[in-house]
Amino acid sequence: MRKMMIKSSSLHPLLLLLLLLLTQLLLILSYFPQLTRAQTYQNISSDTTLTTSGTITNVLSPSGDFAFGFTPLPSNGNTTTTDLFLLAIWFAKTADKAIVWTANGNSPAPAGSTLGLSSNGRLLLTGPDGDTIFSSSASGGSHAAMLDTGNLFLADANSSDLIWQSFENPTDTILPTQVLSLDAFSTKLQSKLTSTNYSNGRFIFSLESDGDLSLRQLASPINANQSYDSYWSTSTSGSGSKLIFDSLLGIVYLELTNHTRINITTAGVGSNTAANFYQRATLDFDGVFRHYVYHKGSNGSWAQGWTSQDHVPDDICLAIIMNVGSGACGYNSYCQLDGNQRAVCQCPSKYSFIDSNNEYRGCMPDFAAQRCDVDDSARFQFVEMVNTDWPLSDYEHYTPIVEDQCRDYCLSDCFCAVAIFRNGECWKKKLPLSNGKIGGSVGGKALIKVTKDNASSYEPGTIPTIVIKNNDRKGLIIVGSSLLGGSVFVNILFVVAILFMIFCYPCKRKRPHHQDVSSVLDHSLRCFTYEELREATNGFSEELGSGAFSTVYKGVFLNGKDSICMAVKKLDKVCQDLNKEFLAEVRSIGQTHHKNLVKLLGYCNEGENRLLVYQFMSNGSLTSFLFGEMKLEWNKRVNIILGVARGLLYLHEECITPIIHCDIKSQNILLDDNLVAKISDFGMAKLLGANQTRTNTGIRGTRGFVAPEWFKSMPITVKVDVYSFGVMLLETICCRKHLEESENEEAVVLVYWAYDCYREGRLDILVGSEREVLFDMRRVERFVMVAIWCIQEDPSLRPTMSKVVLMLEGSVSVPVPPDPSSYMSSIQEERVLPSKCMDSREDPEL
What we know:
The protein has 846 residues and is an alpha+beta fold. The chain has six domains: 32-167, Bulb-type lectin domain (Agglutinin, subunit A); 170-313, Agglutinin, subunit A (Orthogonal Prism), CATH 2.90.10; 334-457, no CATH class; 473-509; 525-616, Phosphorylase Kinase, domain 1; 622-846, Orthogonal Bundle (Transferase(Phosphotransferase), domain 1). The chain is built from 18 helices and 47 strands. The strands form 13 sheets. A six-stranded mixed beta sheet has the order 38-42-43-41-40-39. Strands 3, 4, 5, 6 and 7 form a five-stranded antiparallel beta sheet that branches. Strands 16, 17, 18, 19 and 20 form a five-stranded antiparallel beta sheet that branches. It starts with a helix and ends in an 18-residue tail after the last helix.
């Protein structure tokens, strides 16, 4: 026993020494994480080659998350070609194998190409004829391998130095842990040309030598040194240092020389769940820098595949306005955002894409140009496009002028391709047209000069399009007979169709049931019977919410084998005013179609039963996500704010008949499965005529959200919605109610407190301790300033919703708002007048 103790004690110093040496070794290796991992990697060495069709076409990182090697070049969105290959790095476990780096995007490798280490230690890609397609910029390497970060490196024989790595030679993507710094080999990303063409594209995202981080459009994709002025930048000249992708926070930010930072994207995933996501940030081919995430499980509340969490700029169509160059889209085309906020380029009527595989090359007319040597104007007419413009293609301007004069001036001018008429002004434009865009913020009307639709104006072999008015039956018969006269069988079919129109159309007019509603509805709306809705709601048993005069129930409607969830709104009281309210809601929603408006599926107007059937919103109202225990993440609140603003813009300026909602508040903002905001409850909506900008009506709305003019017997305009939006905007920023009990009396009324915080430069107090919000204070300040403008007492001082959208998106600057103290007294004086069957109501919170 004694001997054992002596022996053990004699070994004790040796164990301590061994542990000390092991600790020092681990400490040293911790400074070289990439090199320590490389020992377990699939190496590419002097005796290893990758081929396009051999036994080894790629190598994996240790975890298998990333792959490097050959992948077939996509030929379009759905197929690939086995004739050409990219040497690339991609996510190996995602469904679409998203590519994050390419070595030969400009020169796809033909089948039979190989990759290996050259005699001087370079990564060398050669074609089947031995020609060099790609070579690493550094030599002296003994092996190359992939890291779990997605970085491909080339190391020397001793593995003590990385002589080349893909992280220092990025293409269009940066990955978590990747840094672009001023002392790096490359400080820019360049987009690919199209979704399937990986050659150099039209945009760069670069950290300039002066420290400014900017997005620019290139004059030529093959020369990244020739670019136009930036269309987005951090304005950090002299202070920017490095661009960092923080994997834990899930954000991309610019670190300044004083070690403060500016967030480029907001948090896409929380720090506690970052390990559950793949992440990348890519300069896409449309010129937008987007942060993408991919849930590794691809289940639960997360959508399948890659989803964009944030992007800059907010609207690429409005961001790019250059004196030279075509703009976001090609010449003679126009840019419009789709439902996923991606730029879509389109051609005007009777224009076609020059290259159907590359819409960014622009459009060309399908007709011969107007001649200048003779009077050729009789061949031409105008196609109207509202809210469309090519703002920098003007060559003549007239004011004041009426629209007919504007048309005549352009028609008689052989150089004029388009005339823009807006607010008594006329601009003539000639080809090529640049910076084309469409949307409510554009305004005005584009008059596009095209050839008339008659046979004499077409080249041989083309087929004219016949335009016929719906109510001109005589013209329909004449034109139909002339077109179909050569076929007896087709003529019989044509006669049957005419008889169907003659006999069936009057029957629809004679139907007395639902005439007051169906006459103003879109044919896509379904007329339900009361019994159908009673059965669908299980006897109106599951209540979703209620207001002063209506209750909303959940229903399930069986449509064949499918079941459709829906929300059924039942008006509880029947009187003349509520009948008007019902008709107003059906009429207003029935003619609207926008991603940020709740969709009306149908209605019931049977006897005294009046019900409205909406799409079911699984996530309920915005209220529950703002004032509950679990607050919605900041980036999702930003998307909701922008969605509501765009929905209101549509109601005010883009509808066939402008609509004032009259009751914008968080309870009336519903959220779908993807947390997309949908404006609901049009029961108080007021429609404006085509030439009407204001109306007179009784007090409507909810206390705290009602604009001051309601109490001053002033005409009501769309600016009452702007006021309500401003209050709701502050609620969404702060996650607190507009009126709230508090020990601090100054903080009871949200607008008081918000302005005080803004005036004193303490918006951090306003947003509390939310980390993601504190990292995005520039946007917070912009949003608060917009909200203060919206709640000005004088309606004329409030911006239009088109201006609000532009300011929220950052497309235009937000001026310093005036002190709103003059209107504060009106907030506390709001009253909703009681009435048994009044036209407005104060809804309780749902």
